[in-house]
Structure formats: C-alpha cells, structure tokens
Amino acid sequence: MRRLRFRVLAAAALLALLAGAQRPPSAEAAAGSAALARGDYAAAEAHFRAALQSQPDSVGLLNDLAISLVRQQRDQAAIAVYERALRLAPQNPVTRRNLAIAYYRQQRFQAALPLLTALAAQMPEDFQVQELRGLCLFALNRYAEAARALQKAAAIRPADLPTLYLLGQAQLRAGDYPAVVEVFRRILQRAPNSAEAHVMMGTADDKMFKVEAAVKEYQAAEAADPRFPGVHSGLGLLYWKLDRVADAEREFKAELALEPDDAVSNCLLGRISLRENRPAEAGRLFQRALAANPKYQEAWFGLGQADVALRQYGSAAAALRRAVSLDPQDAKAHFLLGTALGHLGQAAEAARERRISAQIQARQRAQYTQKLQSSH
To answer: How far, CA to CA in Å, does 255 sit from each of 213, 241, 249, 283?
Structure first.
C-alpha cells in the first residue's frame, strides 16, 4: 500500500491548487499560491489565512489553506479546514476528494470510505477514486469489496502494476484463488520477472493445496530476486510441508541472513531443532520468534515442548498457558500443559487440561465424521 500513497498525495496537491484556481485571486491569495509553488508553506498558510479574512466562505481558499497545512505535515489541522469547506459546499467533489485523502493519510479509513463511495458513483471512470476506495476497503479487511473496487481501477488503467499487485492481494485474502491466477498472468505479461507476482501466485497455489506448484512459483520468485522479503521463509515453509527438512532449513537460514528477526524462520528452525533432539537450541529459536511476534501461538507451544524436553516444567507450563490462551482449541497444547502440571504436582489442574484435550479431540473426530458423511 505504501507505493500507492505517493501518487495519492501528489493528486491531492494538484486538486487543492485547482480548487484555488477557480476564482480570481486576491493579492493575498496570489501571494499564497506563489509561496506554495516555491515551497514556503508557512508563508502560504499565512497568506491564505489573511485572504480568508475577506472571503471566509471561499471553498477554494480553504482547500488552498488545507494543502499548505498538509505540506507542513499538519494533517489534523488540514482535516478541520477541509471539514469546514465541506460544510459550506457538501457536494463539492474537490473538497470531498481532498478530505478523503487526508483521512486516508491519518489511517481514518472508515471516515474516508463514504466520501469515496459517493465520488465513485459520481465519477465511475476516475482511476484515483476507485483505487483509493479499494485501498480503504483493503485496510478495513473488506477484501472482496476491495477487489471489486480495484478491478474497476485496473479496468481504467490496465497496465498499472501497483494496482494489479494490490488487486491480487485482495483476491488472495478474499479466497478468490482463480481470480488471482488471472491477475498473475496479467502482471507477468508486463513484468515477466516479478518476484512479487510469483510469491502471490505461489501463495494462491498453496491455498488451493497445490504445494508442488507453489514451490515452483516461490523458486521462480527466489531466482528473480533472492532478497525479496519473505521469499526464503515462504519457500522454506512449503518445503517443511513436504517434509523436505534439509531444504526447509537452508531456506530459513537464508531468510535469517537477510532478516534475523523473522518470526516464521526462527519458529520453524526451532521445530527442526526439536525434531533433531536439540531442545536447548530450539528454545532459543522460539524465544527469538516470540520477541518478533509475542502472539505467535505455534512458537509458544514449541517453547513449551522444548522446556518439557529439558525438564523445566515451570517455564513449560507458563509457555503452554500462553499457547492455549491464544488458541483454546489446540488439543496438543492442553495435553502437554497437563503433562507439565503433573510434573509440578498440580494433579487436579493437570487432569483438567487432559480432559479438555480429550474433549477437543472428540469434537474434532465428530466434525470430521460428519463432514465425510455429508460428502457422500
């Protein structure tokens, strides 16, 4: 999303200046425009405020003042000015757009969305409006709606790669994997060696349980750009799923060489260390993963496993309590917590955790049986 913000902000500046150009300027307004053009934003603000003394209801002057504030990184003050301008002219499309962009800059996506939705209905062929509406929906985790808005933007500018990338990500998160395949093809027509596109397609393949195909896409991404963020950890995770442990270990170590705090790579290397009976090393790796992501449930469970293997039952119980708090339906974590508590002499609580584990497993078996029966 960052790559698109520069285009959004440049358009905001242009629109504010156009708003100011729609009426004959006073001497103060002309001086403000000149100051704005030469980059003296504080002087521009002073001139526009002076001009507003004689024209307090000028929507164009208010837009000019607001853009001088934005250029000084005073977004909250700019928003107040834009809101004043919108109260004076509620249907003014320039003010609506500029206020929506200001809200977006402040991550007030819910406030920006109604303005952009109205503008999109009024100007369905406006690329920036459709794109920014898609960005807000994406930020609000409304991925299917974001994909629809971004499809409209991509139809207006079919060759715009940033929009295609974001469209693919929205479709991916919405679970529309066939649509991701089509976007992937469009991207590769314009950028055949795009690591980001290969990662996106690999992720879609993985979600569709095509793990071998996903590996090929991640390998292509790695060949295109070995330093692309997450490419090694993503490929390592796929190798891990295929039980190609040596390959997975190599990729996780490659990721850590680029990003030592990568939580996934540290956690999965910890799992490999546990598998190879190196619990002390595993514990250190899980702790690094948790330093990067304290809510990483798998790392808490792994740390508990390592501590049990080291017979450090007190710290194991603490780690496993965190694991079950993050995922109360993890039967293995409940069972291992019961084991650690048993070693600590807490027999009643240990029995309770084992009972919870058994109940979860019974429910899971019943759900699986029901699913099998309904599929026939």
So the answer is: 21, 17, 10, 19
